[in-house]
Design a protein that fits this description.
single chain; about 800 residues; alpha+beta; four-stranded mixed beta sheet; 25 helices; globular; SEC_C_motif; SEC-C motif-containing protein
């Protein structure tokens, strides 16, 4: 009935039958209201379904216009007025509706939220778009705009690399220094951001500009070839007020898009509205579901730390980097030597490096590949996605990243500090045929296959709605050419890049579920260890896990299959496993949440089956079970995923967690302190999670809502209101709640002796000698680079 109403609303909207649209939407309101009166739970369901089905369209979308705004506003206000009329005791509606009918306040609040959302974002989009269109920078050609934006980001990265040591603690390197919000912003008083957030915000703003430019000029790139004629004198990212304003407008748009997405996918709702003395309309958005948002935020920090921790622990990286830093300057000199005198920017067309030398230099990217290999299931790495192997894409990334590093090292030898006209040499225009031919030569790929591999990294000129600079760092600037930028290649998140392959090409990954289940049970069956690097395992006490397949026709006449059945003391644990991959976009996160919801439904049915099908279960399992079925108070239901985004959450009586947190309790019940010194690693247990010396059901239940894996991040996160940049009185002042990391949690744990975290790392910084390669990655010797800053 609800689905039918939604379809009729969409049809009426398309046909401009606004009264019909309002009537059908009000019918949907009544349907939800009936559910509430019958005792059904309500969690912003009306708002969520209207956003999910795009009945309420995105006011900052490219194709949204004033007619969409007027239609949407009229429909919502009609429904709001009808709802208020029913609830008004002074208005008699008994001729139309049943006596004593009242629309629930939560539904009315949802309608108000959608009206405010439409007003707020339509107004801001109109103002922001007009500013961008009228910007002086946007009036220069596509090529100069794109190169200016990319050059700004590239040079900001150069400056950061040269000053990297200044951001690190001298006594304790944790990997989380760059994620702490301790840097003031220039557009709002008393507001701090982290270095990572600052770079991410800049990059997201550039992504908005790139999409804007390709929307305007993309159609023409299919025929355009750029050889000469670029007006390099117009490429001025510094001392350029108009370009600063251009970036500021883009930054405002990024923040608008981020909050709009948060509202659309159920993270924000309007908290309060008012008007300042200056007449500025203020909209404050609060978290719709604090636990859900906090779990997502903790998951992001956990991933960040895991990536950086793997980089610190893998000593192979030091050897590869040392060799790479030895070879990259040689290759940079080779690139410089093949330049024609008239070249304004570095040209790769005649650069054909020695194969062996180049492959040694690829060590610069090995650490990122190792991180992906350690954090990504083998199944994904071994997949072939529409004719391309994932492992070959990783090889291609190493090649592209190394090529960009050669460009970086070469440019550092050529550019002159404070002479902005030389900075353009930090970028290069490079032909796609060159990239594929060199990839084919260096890594022995078939040329047509090499072309496919390169294409996966290209931001396309048309049909690029799903493209972004985070996964497609090669930006097309003509029919055959792309811009090569070290900064864009270096920022690629390979985990996300792999994820995009599966999403874009709709790859079926159902098989991973069986692999996930087998590995999970095998890990529990293996037992527990007492040290981080201990490979001796003991049987988990007070615990047993089934290893047999349990599948049968259940009490309701349908087949049922259990993933994991285990016993902990006097409790039965039923676990449903869902392999969902890590989500980097909210829309993907919400899509995959369907799997979690499915797990919840399945667990409820399995708990029912325990009551009615106990004998069948007892006959099929490999472990001893009591004669009588467990009562519902002694059954622990867990939906377990392979991603951190839902830890720790609880829906009714069902816990939602991730495999890392779950397995930690049973298989490695210790919090370790790891001290890293040159040539030596010391690991010691500082805390046993099992307070009784063995796993306990009540303790496990408490652990699921507060696992050590989220410590100490949750202790050092603070909720704050973050403003969107305001440019002038035409804007609205928009604020949204956000969780920030206000202190380095790992450093705090080390210095305070707090050992509640899953793992604390204290690292003694290795002495760097004057002639060593500088650790910032500049390619210079330490004495000529960060040594002066350190002093």
């Amino acid at each position: 009935m609800k689905e039918e109403s939604i379809n009729k609303i969409i049809e009426a909207y398309e046909n401009n039958e606004l009264n019909e649209c309002s009537a059908k939407l009000f019918l949907l309101v009544l349907l939800y209201n009936t559910d509430i009166m019958a005792g059904e739970p309500y969690d912003h369901d009306l708002k969520h379904i209207l956003f999910k089905t795009n009945c309420i369209r995105n006011p900052i979308g490219m194709k949204y216009n004033s007619n969409d705004y007027k239609k949407t506003k009229q429909i919502l206000m009609d429904v709001f007025n009808m709802s208020k009329a029913i609830n008004d005791p002074k208005i008699n509606t008994q001729d139309t509706f049943q006596k004593d009918l009242a629309i629930d306040d939560r539904i009315i609040k949802d309608i108000i939220n959608m009206v405010v959302y439409t007003d707020c974002f339509y107004k801001m989009n109109s103002v922001n778009t007009k500013r961008m269109d009228e910007s002086e920078t946007s009036k220069i050609s596509f090529v100069e705009q794109l190169i200016t934006v990319l050059l700004f980001y590239q040079d900001q990265t150069r400056i950061f690399r040269e000053n990297y040591q200044n951001f690190l603690s001298k006594d304790c390197v944790t990997g989380m220094e760059l994620s702490v919000t301790n840097r003031p912003v220039d557009y709002y008083d008393n507001l701090n951001v982290s270095i990572s957030d600052n770079f991410e915000s800049t990059l997201e703003s550039i992504n908005e500009i790139v999409h804007y430019l390709y929307y305007q000029y993309g159609e023409n790139l299919a025929t355009q070839v750029i050889e000469t004629g670029i007006k390099f004198e117009l490429i001025q990212p510094y001392k350029n007020v108009e370009f600063e304003r251009y970036l500021y407008i883009a930054s405002q748009r990024y923040h608008l898009c981020r909050i709009e997405e948060g509202i659309r996918y159920g993270y924000y709702e309007i908290g309060h509205m008012n008007t300042t003395e200056e007449g500025l309309q203020v909209y404050s958005y609060s978290l719709e579901n604090d636990e859900k948002y906090k779990a997502r935020s903790i998951g992001i920090f956990r991933r960040e730390y895991q990536v950086r921790n793997h980089t610190m622990f893998d000593y192979r990286n030091q050897k590869d980097l040392a060799l790479a830093y030895e070879k990259l300057p040689i290759l940079a000199d080779d690139l410089i030597n093949v330049q024609a005198e008239e070249n304004v920017i570095l040209d790769f067309s005649k650069f054909h490096p020695d194969k062996d030398l180049f492959q040694k230099a690829e060590g610069i990217a090995k650490s990122k590949e190792r991180i992906v290999e350690s954090l990504t299931k083998d199944y994904y790495l071994e997949c072939n996605v529409k004719g391309v192997k994932i492992r070959d894409l990783l090889c291609t990334y190493e090649y592209l990243n190394t090529l960009s590093e050669i460009l970086y090292f070469a440019s550092m030898k050529i550019i002159i500090e404070n002479e902005q006209n030389t900075y353009v040499k930090e970028l290069s225009l490079i032909d796609l045929s060159y990239l594929s031919m060199e990839l084919s030569r260096i890594h022995s790929f078939d040329i047509s296959y090499a072309q496919k591999l390169i294409d996966r990294f290209v931001f396309h000129e048309k049909k690029n709605r799903d493209d972004d600079i985070f996964a497609q760092p090669l930006l097309k600037i003509s029919k055959t050419q792309v811009v090569l930028s070290q900064a864009l290649l270096d920022q690629v998140n390979l985990d996300r890049f792999i994820e995009r392959q599966f999403i874009r090409y709709k790859k079926d990954v159902s098989e991973i579920g069986h692999i996930f289940e087998k590995e999970f049970i095998d890990r529990l069956k293996k037992g527990y260890s007492e040290r981080f690097f201990d490979f001796k395992y003991k049987v988990i006490p007070n615990f047993a896990v089934n290893t047999n397949e349990v599948k049968y026709e259940a009490f309701d006449g349908r087949e049922i299959e259990f993933d994991v059945i285990s016993v902990l003391g006097d409790y039965l644990i039923l676990t449903e496993l869902k392999a969902v991959m890590t989500s980097y976009d909210l829309n993907d996160l919400e899509e995959r949440k369907r799997n979690v919801k499915k797990a919840i439904v399945q667990l409820k049915r399995r708990a029912e089956s325990v009551k009615y099908d106990w004998e069948k279960i007892r006959e099929l399992v490999s472990i001893d079970l009591p004669d009588q079925p467990y009562d519902q108070d002694h059954i622990i239901l867990i939906a377990c995923t392979d991603t951190y985004d839902y830890t720790p959450l609880k829906y009714e009586n069902i816990f939602i967690t991730d495999d890392s947190s779950y397995l930690k309790y049973f298989t490695n019940p210790y919090v370790d302190t790891i001290e890293l010194k040159p040539g030596n690693v010391t690991v010691r247990n500082s805390k046993n999670i099992w307070k009784r010396g063995y796993p306990d059901a009540q303790e496990f239940i408490e652990y699921l809502m507060n696992p050590v894996t989220i410590h100490p991040f949750s202790d050092y996160m603070k909720k704050r209101y973050i403003p969107i940049p305001v440019i002038d009185e035409k804007d609205c002042a928009i604020f949204c709640e956000e969780y920030n990391l206000v202190e380095d949690p790992i450093k705090a744990a080390v210095l305070s002796g707090d050992k509640d975290g899953e793992q604390t790392v204290k690292r003694t910084v290795k002495k760097i000698y004057p002639n060593d390669p500088c650790p910032c990655g500049s390619g210079k010797k330490y004495k000529n680079c960060c040594r002066n800053n350190a002093k």
